[in-house]
Write a structure and sequence with these properties.
Blueprint: H1 4-13, E1 28-29, E2 42-45, E3 52-53, E4 56-57, H2 61-70, E5 74-79, H3 86-96, E6 105-107, H4 108-113, E7 121-124, E8 138-140, H5 145-150, E9 153-156, H6 164-176, E10 181-183, E11 189-192, E12 195-198, H7 200-210, E13 215-217, H8 224-232, E14 241-245, H9 248-258, E15 261-265, H10 277-283, E16 289-291
Parallel strand pairs: 1-16, 2-5, 2-14, 5-6, 7-8, 7-9, 9-10, 10-13, 14-15, 15-16
Antiparallel strand pairs: 3-4, 11-12
């Protein structure tokens, strides 16, 4: 069973694979993003734990986003959820009650698909994923070991339906023929209505423990997704871009490595029910600001 402590500990174990950044503390407590809006050009929101938990919008998230728009701030959502494209993500946020344009959503899927190789691609994703934005020759990977062996590279987008048996097939095929494995969601876990779900990063780091030179991670905290997001914004200094997230090793570390400002949101995400001070002290990752909800 995944817990806040076990997830944090695993992030620390794989710290050498993550970007490096200087994140000095202490964090400044604020009560609302409106407290800092006058000095911010763009607010970038993580989704899970900040705007929503599972399929439920966090109370007040929709109103706060609209208030920040009215202040003249650019709004972006930067999510490591890689099992749907931008238009599908837009539909999801609209169902939650959050108004957002497709152009304001940047996903780790965007970054991953820009880095595909040639040859037959094996894809690990949810059955609901149509893969309509993939042009490559693809094979969906489920329970057939031969399918794993015949592909030239592997793309891991979603852990929905992923099992220990399938993870074992992935390990075995990599041992037989190590090749490029693209992890489209670098998160180890995501907060759900009933706890934490294991995400592609969890399984990808298990493979990277054995074949580090063959595994590449995409999404926060890795750089490619920040290139895409910055290109979507009007010109502004990087320190006027502020990332709001619930995870130290993805949201805060990745944004700090980019030179962005950072806000750690604590009420509903990874650290719900915990004081973050000890986690920041141990990891030496401090957000610029901290608050319960946006």
């Amino acid at each position: 069973m995944l817990t806040t402590q076990s997830i944090f500990n695993r992030y620390e174990e794989v710290r050498s694979r993550l970007p490096k950044a200087h994140c000095p503390g202490p964090s400044t407590q604020i009560s609302s993003l409106l407290d800092i809006a006058d000095q911010v050009g763009a607010f970038v929101f993580d989704a899970f734990g900040v705007l929503n938990v599972g399929e439920t919008m966090i109370i007040g998230a929709d109103k706060r986003v609209e208030q920040l728009r009215e202040r003249g701030c650019e709004i972006r959502i930067l999510t490591n959820a890689a099992s749907y494209n931008r238009s599908e993500a837009k539909s999801k946020f609209e169902r939650l009650g959050i108004r957002v344009e497709a152009s304001e959503i940047i996903t780790s899927r965007d970054a991953t698909l820009q880095n595909l190789g040639v040859g037959r691609l094996g894809v690990i994703t949810s059955d609901e994923d149509t893969l309509s934005d993939l042009q490559s020759s693809i094979t969906r990977l489920h329970d057939n070991a031969d399918d794993y062996d015949r592909v030239d590279s592997i793309l891991f987008l979603s852990a929905s339906g992923w099992t220990e048996k399938r993870q074992d097939l992935l390990v075995r095929t990599m041992r037989r023929r190590p090749r490029k494995l693209l992890i489209g969601n670098a998160d180890l876990a995501a907060p759900r209505d009933d706890g934490f779900s294991a995400e592609p990063g969890h399984f990808g780091h298990e493979i990277a423990d054995m074949f580090p030179e063959h595994v590449q991670f995409f999404g926060k905290p890795f750089p490619e997704v920040y290139d895409i997001l910055e290109a979507s914004l009007p010109p502004m200094p990087r320190d006027q871009i502020v990332m709001c997230g619930d995870t130290l090793h993805t949201d805060i570390l990745g944004a700090a490595a980019r030179g962005w400002g950072t806000v750690l949101v604590t009420e509903d995400g990874l650290f719900a029910g915990h004081s973050t001070q000890s986690f920041s002290a141990q990891s030496r990752i401090f957000a610029d600001w901290i608050l319960k909800r946006i």
